[in-house]
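User: Last request for today: this protein with FE2/S2 (inorganic) cluster, please.
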Amino acid sequence: MPDQPSTTHAHEELASVSTPLRHVRLTVNGEVYERDIEPRRTLLDTLRDDLGLTGAKLGCDMGQCGACTALVDGEAMYACLLLAVEMEDRPITTIEGLAPNGELDPVQAAIIEHDALQCGFCTPGQALALKALLARTPHPNDEEIDRALSGNLCRCGAYPKLRAAARSLARSEV
Ligand code: FES
Ligand code: FES
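Assistant: Here's the final one, the structure of the complex with FE2/S2 (inorganic) cluster:
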């Protein structure tokens, strides 16, 4: 029986296989970026490494933590689960896009006002999740706020303060 390649060896071989690049036009935070990208490259890697937008964080890299959250067509999505080549014609917003001229978005201001950030690694994704919620539901109740934040895991317990921040925005225009 012939020798079987080891799993490690197989993974190394797979990683070394180069695939043809695809020319992609992405609209992020209102700016158009054109790049040649491997079809298997995630939106998260593209944002961080190709476009220099490091606000979206790499956490689990498997759709469980929400640290990579970006808005796609206005909806909060996990950028680690999306392929960059599939994002053409789909406007993307990252946390950098909420304060384009250094002026904080009301969601960011409310998070600061309510002291709703701790480690900070999760905060960009939480802010974007709240932004998406308030855009579609301007006056959310606690259940809706909790559901909107349920995809953004936080171990330090910032949820009550995030809820307070969202509640304060429910009374104003965002
Ligand atoms: S890094 Fe994308 S969900 Fe955790
Ligand atoms: S804000 Fe990061 S673990 Fe809570």
